[in-house]
Every structure is written in structure tokens, then in C-alpha cells.
Amino acid sequence: MAHIIHPFFPSSHNSPLKMAAGAGHSHSLIFTYGTLKRGFSNHSLIQDLTAAGDAAFMTACRTAAHFPLVSGPYRVPFLLNFPGAGHRVSGELYAVSAAALRRLDELEGTDRGHYERLPIEIEAAARDGGERMWAEAYFAHRRYAAALWRKSGGKAYREYTKKEAIGYVRRKDRPRNQSFLEQIELFVSS
After folding, report:
1. Contact assessment for residue 131 and residue 123, using Cβ atoms and an 8 Å cutoff
2. Residue 129 has what pLDDT?
3. How sure is the predictor about 125, in pLDDT bands with cuts at 50, 70 and 90?
4. Which of 52, 63, 138, 178 has the most other CB atoms within 10 Å of its CB?
5. For residues 154 and 2, what is the distance between their CA atoms, to the nearest angstrom?
6. Are strands 77-79 and 90-96 parallel, antiparallel or unpaired?
7. Each residue of 29-79: pLDDT tens digit?
8. What is the Cα–Cα distance from 158 to 63, expressed in whole angstroms?
9. Alpha carbon distance 55, 23 (integer Å)
10. How far apart are CA 80 and CA 138, in angstroms?
11. 136 catalytic residue (yes or no)
12. Residue 151, SS3?
């Protein structure tokens, strides 16, 4: 479900992306639940993409099903693809161009086994009609998701907030002598 044309655009939004989508160009809907959300450390990428006309905020939303949202090494948030466990997770929905999707995939390390971009059903905020729709989200890679869930003791967040982000370490400030996968392995084995 990489590229879709979707009519869900709040009427108050007049971005170039909206106009392109209205002209029949495809875009992807991406559910963000962690550091890509407004007010968090990686949102600057979304801002850059928005300024370039490659991303547009759609609505606040939450997952239609329950999923575990946990913190990993350096307080990095991970959504685990274990439907039915955890909570309905709150986040934000963005429409993004193919170019933006490539940049998000790069940030999330999809080609390095950090995260997997997978379909997810979300529900828009009630003020935006509460419509359910399919989007994609970056889930913890299946190779280590179960270990993260065990490490969390089966405790999950409803939302990644400033409280959960206390202690978050930006990528540039993490040890450079280990890959992120090695850091995850150390975290889950400690």
C-alpha cells in the first residue's frame, strides 16, 4: 500500500500536496506516533518536507486496533506489530509524496532492519469526522520486536509524550562505535 489516492484532506488545508493529490497524483498516508510528531526531535524533517510541498499534516488520529508502543534504547519509541496487545495509540497522520517517503524510510532505517513500514488502520480525530482509513506506520522490525515487548514487561504507552521522551538521545549524540541494531541488542539483553 505504498501509494494511494485518498480524498481525506481537511478543507482548511491548501498545500501543494493537496492540489497535486486532487490532480490525480498519488501520495502515501503515514501514521506518526513518536519523534516525527509535532514538538519532538525529528519533526524538523516533516517541517522541511512540508515546506517543499512534499508533506501535509492531515489530522490527529489513533490506531483502530490496540498495539504496544514501547521505548527502546535511548528512549527511542517503537510501535510493535502485535495487534490486540497494548492500547489504541495516538499520533498524527501525514500525506507524503514519494520523495518524502524515501526520506522517511531513510530516517527510519527500513533498509537496515531498524523499522518496517507496514499498513495500519487508523481513526481520524472526532473533530475531523472520526473516519477510519488505512495508512502506513513504521513498526519495530520483526527480528527484535518480541524482545522489546519482553523488555518492557508488557507495559505499553497510549501515546509518546514529553514524559516518555525524557532521556531521549538524538542520533548524533549516540555512541558511534556501535550500529543501532547493536544498541538494540544490548538494550534487550541487559
Report:
1. yes
2. 80
3. confident
4. 138
5. 31
6. unpaired
7. 999 999 999 999 999 999 999 999 999 999 999 999 999 999 999 999 999
8. 10
9. 16
10. 9
11. no
12. helix
What are the φ/ψ torsions at residue 139 (nearest 5 degrees)?
-95, 150
Tell me the backbone φ, ψ of residue 187, rounded to 5 degrees.
-60, -50
pLDDT digits (tens, 9 = 90+) for 72-124: 999 999 999 999 999 999 999 999 999 999 999 999 999 999 999 999 999 99
Residues whose CB is less than 8 angstroms from the CB of residue 49 and which lie 6 or more positions away in sequence, other chains included: 55, 96, 97, 100, 103
Tell me the CA distances in angstroms from 19 to 5, 24, 27, 69, 98, one per residue in order.
12, 9, 11, 34, 15
pTM as predicted: 0.87
Annotated catalytic residue within 92, 106, 108, 136: 108
Cell output for 163: 514524559
d(Cα 186, Cα 65) in Å, to the nearest integer? 30
Q: Is residue 16 over pLDDT 80?
A: no
